[in-house]
Each structure stands twice: as C-alpha cells, then as structure tokens.
From TrEMBL, chains A, B, C:
Keywords: ATP-binding, Kinase, Magnesium, Metal-binding, Nucleotide-binding, Thiamine biosynthesis, Transferase. SUPFAM superfamilies: Ribokinase-like. ATP binds at R120, T166. Belongs to the Thz kinase family. It comes from the Bacteria. Catalyzes the phosphorylation of the hydroxyl group of 4-methyl-5-beta-hydroxyethylthiazole (THZ). Its EC number is 2.7.1.50. The gene is thiM. This is Hydroxyethylthiazole kinase. Substrate binds at M45, A193.
C-alpha cells in the first residue's frame, strides 16, 4: 500500500476515528450515521444554529447537505461553514436537487460563497451547478456521469474545490488532476440517501487526510465502490443490499480495499 | 391483464417513474422513500414552506401526513395542497392519530378544506374522521377494518374523496363503488411507518392513473398486500420482514401482481 | 419467575401495551419506534409544543432525548415533562453528548429541574453529568462503564432519580440499591441510536411498573442485553445485527428472558 492509497487512509481512519459533524437531511440521518460507524468514523448530527458553530470547532470535518432544507437550518449551515473555515477544517457540500426550486438555488449559491473544500453531487447536480442543462427530476439523476466530467472540471476551477460527480462511474477532480473510480452496484440508486451518506464519508476521509482533499475523496469513493460491489454479490434486492452494504463496509480492511480498487487517472 | 388492473398500473409506473412529493413525518421519511424506490417511483421529501408550493407544480402527485406535525410545517402543507389543486394533480391525506390532540384535529380539518383526492388511514382514524367513536391509542389502530367500512363510505361522500381504510383487510371506496383487498402479513403493523409508506405509494399510483383515483388506490393497496404476503413467507420477525418487503416490492412485476391479487367488489 | 423479574414485566408489557411518548432525535426516531414495537409497546413520537403537553396526559410514560435539539423543541420538552409530572407519570431523560456544547449543557440543566424519574446515558455522559472529567468525543462514549458507577450513584442521590449508565456492562442505581447487567454485543455501539432506543424502552418498562423505576429499568436493560446477545449469534456485521436485533426482541418471551438474564447486585 502506498502511504496515501485508499487502503492506508481507511487504516488511518480506523486507528484514529475522526469526529465528523453532519448537517444532513431527515431522510439520510440514520443511514448516514450507520455508514460512518460501519466505516469506522464517529458521526455527529449537529445542525441547530445555537450550537452548529461551536461544534464545528470540535469536529475534524463538516458536511452540509440541503436535502430537506428550511430557513432555520440555513443559519446553522452558514455558521458551521464559517467556523470550519476559521478553524482550517475541511467541509463538504452536497447540493441535493439544487436546480429544483428557487429556494434551493439561492441556498446553494450562498453556501458556495463559504468556499467548500469538496462538492459531491450526482451527474445532474454537477452539470446544473456548472451552468449546464440537466435532465434531473426531483432528487434522482438522469444524466450519465460521463457528461458531468467537463462540468466537474469547470466547477472545480471556478470554486477552487474538489468536485466529485458520482453515479454508475465516479469522477473526481480538482480542476487539474482527475480520477475515475469504478465499482458499486445497480442496487445503490435504489436505496434512498446512499449518495448523501457518501458525502458524509467524503467528509470523514477529508478529516483523515486534509492535506490533499482530492486524494481523500478518491479514497472515500473507492471505499463506497468496493463495499457496494462486495455487498451486491449476495443481495437479492434493495432491502437486502442496504444491510449487506453496512456489513461489507465494516468488514473491509485497507489491504483488501487496495486490492479491489479500480481507479484510473482521467 | 386489464388495462387498469393493478399489474398494468405497476408496469406503467415502472415505464415512466412518477416524481412524488411527500410531506411526511420524521419516522416515515426513510422507509417511505425506500418503499417508493423499490416500487419504481421517484420520491422527493419536500416540505419547507419556502419551496413546497413550487415543488408541487413539478411533482406528479403530493402526499401529506401529519405524523410529526408542527406549526411551521402546516404552512408548507397548505401551500403544497393549494398548488397541487391548481395544477390539477392528485393529493393524498394521511390523518395520523388525528383524534389524539386538539392540534391534530384542527390541522386535519384545515387540510380537509383543501379537498384531498384520497384519504388513507387505519380503521381507528377513518372511524374517528367520520365522527364515530374509535378505540385508537396513540398512532396504533385498535379497531377492525370491517367496522371502518361504513365510516369510509360516509367520509367519501362527505368530502368527495376516495377513502382507504387499511389494516388486516383493506377497504377502499369513492362512496359508491367499493373494494376489499386481502393479503399482507401480521408483521406489517410491527414495522413502524409502513402505513405512512403506503400513503406515499397511493400517491405514486394516483400520479400514474389520475383519471380514476379509486382504481389507482386499489392498485396501490394490492401492490402492498401482495408484496407483504411474499415477504412474510421467509421472514422470522419484524426486522427481517422490513428488508424482505423492500426486496419483494422490487421483485414484483405486473403479471405476477395480477395473478396474486385478491380483490373483490364490496 | 418472580413477580417483578424482567420476564414478568415483559409479559405484563405484552398483555397491556403501554403508549409511550418519545421526544427523541431525528437519527433515532425510526429505529426507536421499531424497537418499542418489537418489544410489544406502542410508541408515539410527539414533540411539537402545540401538543406535547396534551399528549403527555394520554401516554403512560414520556422519554426526552436531546440528540438533535433545537430551541423550538425545548418548549415541547418542558411542557411535556411538566405534564408528565402533574399526571404522576414516569419520564426518562437521555442527555446525549450534553458536555459537547453550551447549548446542550444549558438544556440538560433546565430539564433536570423537572426531576426526571430515570436518567439513561453512556459512561461519558453520566461521568460528565456528575461533574467528572470524561473522555467523550461527540456522541460516542470513550469511558468504561465501571468508571461511571460512582458518578451514577452521586447523580442518583443529587437528583432523586434512577440512573442507568450503559455500555459493555450496564450499571443502574437509585443511589442506594445498585445492579450490574451483563450481555449485549460488540455490534451494538456500531448501530446508530441503539442507546437512544434503549432510553425509549426504559420508558416503556417504567410505564408497566411505575412503582419501582429501579426494578423497571433493570428489566429494560436486561431485555436489551439478552436480545443483543441472541441477535449477535448469527450477525456478520452491524447491518445484519440491526434487523436480527429486532427479530430477537420480538421473539423474546418472559421465561426465556429470566433464564438468560445476567443480573447481580452491586
């Protein structure tokens, strides 16, 4: 294993579990916390404006997801993002279905002003965020990840962020370097909030290796892809896939991860 | 398969997955989204007053559930119901435990004024909504569905809505025509929020066949009943039933559904 | 079985399922409701300030958990605790990560003024609540339950409450009498919100046997410990443990519980 391979970062995460603050949506909260626990991280769902900022000073990374946004929560998101920036901690933005309503578009614009370290979305979200025309419907992506690749590069350069466009094939770039990660399973889009959970895992890996958020993002996407592949082998449908995925995440170790990883420069 | 049989409506749903907006409770959000995904629909949990109305213009159906109601959410419910009505889209009301507190009773009265297309509740909820004396305790029904049948007919006529009273045996009526659907499993009331999830599926089928919400409701109840029966065959308890139910929903196809359906006019 | 053994209390709960009002966090809501249903109780997640107090008059016990607290919810918590006290019904406090932020510390202080019948926390929470120095990080405990035992005794005397410090080994005391309960599984801390769910079960057993909340708490902890042990036998990871735990809870009967119970006076 290389020192910054996905496997070594997973091993490092397990050796010193990072506390990750997640401001996520009501649908994702339980499964995202279980995904972080299975991976070995320590999740905390803390969003109230009264404490979001103070907690961001304690946590090693922050993730913000606008899935079930309301005006009250926006305050907690802004103060947490500010606090993470002040403390030099990485934070990840998940712009769920930001193209669907004015409220979401404005919320994402305001959050982008806080300069997220990493942006993670599905193809439709990344294309629309870069100003393109997408075919997203509600919260499900209908655009192939391949088409999102140029959008991701544009977005990364415009915002000085790492951008991950995930789907059947994952693509991640900092505007210069870029990687494609293969794996996963056809069951993944049929389990709600797995993408949101991946955003939280991206935060956990960024906490482990804040030096290079592109490298840490590759690790997070690879962990998801390999665990998804392993879980799918015995799953009969989305119900059995969901719990097998948590078992597979928990059973994954660093050397196995590196052996199964399918990453290539793009 | 007849053109409006449950099986053909399920096939139509899969061919063109409807986007369904659900304003539901915190307990139900995750399982309801997973139920819709397993059935083949595209769920969106959008409730904030800032966007609920705009989103109702995009979605093909709306469902409203008062399970964990608060004053702030009432605003989103009202503007979404208004927007669905203006756009001529079906909407479904789930009056969870509406008899338990004044706050709930008033909320349901106010929502009924928006003339829901379909009302789905358990026997206790339907009996109480029609003005009868029920034995409901908290959110669990303690009244047999049989007793709810005359209440459902009264309610349907009073509100010009389709009314579904579900439980061991399901009953659905538009005040004139009525059907009984058999199936399901004794494990279903032991899994929280399955009734709430059924409400969302009723919305999805109403989106697929808005012409006749009685027919689309029969389809939704039949899908649930057959998937429940199939899942129960291998389940050892409520925990294993829950994920097997999602697998069974996902594995169900139109012809199998029609073959297993137990529907009779009442 | 003794009349107040865990097994007889479980049998009594099944014979007359108590309605339990839970003001809990967004992560816990679904799994906590499923845990109560599997045990045989009737859960209701009712927290809005508009109805929390009225509902506390209907329910047989109340549980309050500050996991995803916000200012609006505090009002519902206070009025519900007041109503439970006025009606002479037991209520349980779960001070999730109360040491993490000022907002939480103040919230817990204010709730303690309502004199909870029972306080349930992990070792870090109980140590910090008694004024000690803990090693908690976010919401996960890093202190052994053994160290929490003297803190629990201090806390119980100071607040006239039963205090349960749970973890690998559970400890529960009313300040005079004390018991240790063994069992459970290493998978339990890897499933999010199982501790929060246990708090709700403590409430359910307090409803069944309000005369002696120490005895009812011992029963709740023993039910969890034995079901956890039984579920772990076939689990391969946290994902498969979670649903097997619900099956095991549901399959447990009074005599089996008493046979497997490992309780000793401390």
């Amino acid at each position: 294993m290389q020192q910054t391979s996905p496997g070594s970062l997973l091993t490092a995460l397990r050796a010193d579990p990072p506390l990750v603050q997640n401001i996520t949506n009501f649908v994702a909260m339980n499964i995202a916390a279980n995904v972080l626990l299975a991976a070995g991280a320590s999740p905390a769902m803390v969003h109230a404006e009264e404490e979001a900022s103070e907690f961001a000073g304690i946590a090693r990374a922050l993730t913000i997801n606008i899935g079930t946004l309301s005006a009250g929560w926006m305050k907690g998101m802004h103060s947490a993002a500010d606090a993470a920036n002040r403390a030099g901690k990485p934070w990840v933005l998940d712009p769920v279905a930001h193209y669907a309503t004015n409220f979401r578009r404005q919320a994402v614009d305001a959050l982008l002003a806080h300069r997220p370290t990493i942006i993670r979305g599905n193809a439709s979200e990344i294309i629309a965020l870069a100003g393109g025309t997408n075919r997203g419907q509600g919260v499900d992506s209908r655009d192939p990840v391949e088409q999102a690749q140029s959008s991701a590069r544009i977005l990364a350069k415009a915002h000085g962020a790492v951008v991950a466009a995930t789907g059947e094939i994952d693509f991640v770039t900092d505007g210069e370097r870029a990687f494609v990660i293969e794996g996963g399973s056809r069951f993944m889009p049929a389990v709600t909030a797995l993408g949101c959970s991946l955003t939280c895992l991206v935060g956990a890996l960024a906490a482990v290796f804040p030096t290079d958020p592109l490298v840490s993002s590759v690790a997070a996407l690879t962990i998801f892809a390999v665990a998804g592949e392993n879980a799918a082998r015995q799953a009969d449908g989305p119900g059995s896939f969901a719990w097998r995925f948590l078992d597979a995440l928990s059973a994954l170790d660093g050397p196995t991860l590196d052996r199964q990883a399918r990453i290539r420069a793009a």
